[in-house]
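Our collaborator T.R. sent over the components below with a one-line note: 'Predict the complex.' Nothing else. No constraints on interfaces, no templates requested, no preferences about which chain binds where. So this is a plain run: every listed entity goes in together, and whatever single assembly comes back becomes the starting point for the next discussion.
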Amino acid sequence: MTESLILGLSSGSACLATCGMVMFPYLMSGSAGVKRIASDLTLFLVTRFLVYFMLATLSWSFGKALFSNLVVRNILPGILYIVFAVMLVWYSISKKRNRDCPAKIVQTVNNRKLVPILLGLVNSLGFCPALFLILTKGAAEKTLVHSYISFLAFFIGSSIWFIPLPLAGKIQKKEVLTTIGILATGLAGIIFMIKGLTNLIGGIING
Amino acid sequence: MDNVLKIGGNRKSFGKSILYTLPMFLITFMFMTGGRPNFSDLSSGLALLTAFLLVNILYFLMHFTGKTDRYRAILFIIFALSLSYTLIHNMLEVRKSMSFSQADILECKIPFCHLVIPMMILPAAFTKSIIFPGSILNGFANISTMIVLWLVATLVLGRGFCSWGCFYGGWDDGFSRFGKKPLIKRIDGLWKWMPFAVLMMVMLTAALSMMPTYCSWICPFKAVTEFEQVTSVESAAKAGIFLSLFGGLVIVLPVMTKKRTQCSFLCPLGAINTLSNKITPFMVKIDKNDCNECFKCVEACPLYAITRDDIKEGKVSMFCSKCGKCVDACSRNAIHYGIKGVPSGTLKNFSRNLFLFVSFLFMAIFSAGSIIASFHGLLKLIF
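Returned assembly:
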């Protein structure tokens, strides 16, 4: 749970750094009042929650089928952790990161009411390395409940960053906060890399 | 004429330097001997005398030559080496090993160090518990003494703690002085925010797991103090991380960049100390009237605290640890120690004298015990 929460917290900040400029104008809708922003934000977060709920079920079911063999169960998550963690670290140091925002798709939608739902979908399904990591974790969990807990922690961690959106305009030194968030994402990648390595070596030793 | 005066701006005559050293002489004498020097054991007496003379000669030279960093660094590096020596010696004597066992953790026998402080904040605030297996009041390096020492030093010196009080900083400071020219000259400025990211991560992980995660997983100085016994894949991974971070950030990168890379890019306590720089009375200032923008101070700064833009704006960033390297590098005395609220360019000597007295006294008292102990150990080895 701790790892998932940390992954969520760190990737949430990176997500804002990447997609903030695309999402802010839609979620805060210019001159809209606090009520409108709050309702948009709620829709956005509920969509994300539902998507993660489905992903937790899917990843666990997939993991149960794929990791039925003991050797595979011991070794494959370790390898996946390492691969996705390397991707996450790369993502945090890549200068092209800002071009990759999947939320840009909403710029083509005309229906204003659909925007928060679509943003929630795109944001939670935007296949960034952090999502791959949590999918791997969900798949490697022993029970479905554990998988739900992992995803819930990831959802909470990443959602915290969206709560102060209505105040975003008033935050000073956004660049510094973004830089720290991006670096923290890289660190989360390193944590999962180490977890992957210990899992892998432990898996090999234990047969 | 004006130039000549400025070049020797911080220098003092022999007599004046002696006068300035006298208070340090008396205070360190009282602290080191408790007012009653004991020479019954020759090697203990010699160790005490050597440490006492070393501290006071260095302080005298700071005034006499006008150079700060050169003599600060000598004591700072000796402090780091002697503390590691004392700690390892102590552990080998008590435990017969540098590693600690689960029993040591259960009995709260682990010496406390200031790097744990960032991780203690959230658990202490929310659960009123201390997440470190050390003694609160008794024994070697107990928790309360270390916290009080760090707090006082940080409130007075700000990030100056990192160059005048930290008993680890001397390691990468020492290695950053090897070689004449840096092999790596440019490092992206964004990396200096890394300690804040590390701080955020260790505070969160410590709060969520109720474990001092930085000590358990990251601290490079475990390589020269103590570490968990290697009994599993996880503990082997930890040992691997400690050694590689020590090798990379404390030895290799400082030699290649001539900068203190561990302090600049990793230390989470450095991030807190950086923030505390905002409230401390002492700071390094730039006198725009005397500065000819040669940027020697930018090159000299070991913590990436001064950029060319900072010089143009006439202010040093909050990352400054007040080590004095930039002050020594400036031939025009344009960059100088100052006091908050006092305009730059004024009270240069007074500010320097006051800052040196406070910071050097702290380092001298803080380091005295381990320096005397290591000199004693060395003398025992020789004779």
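Summary for T.R.: Chain B has 18 helices and four strands.
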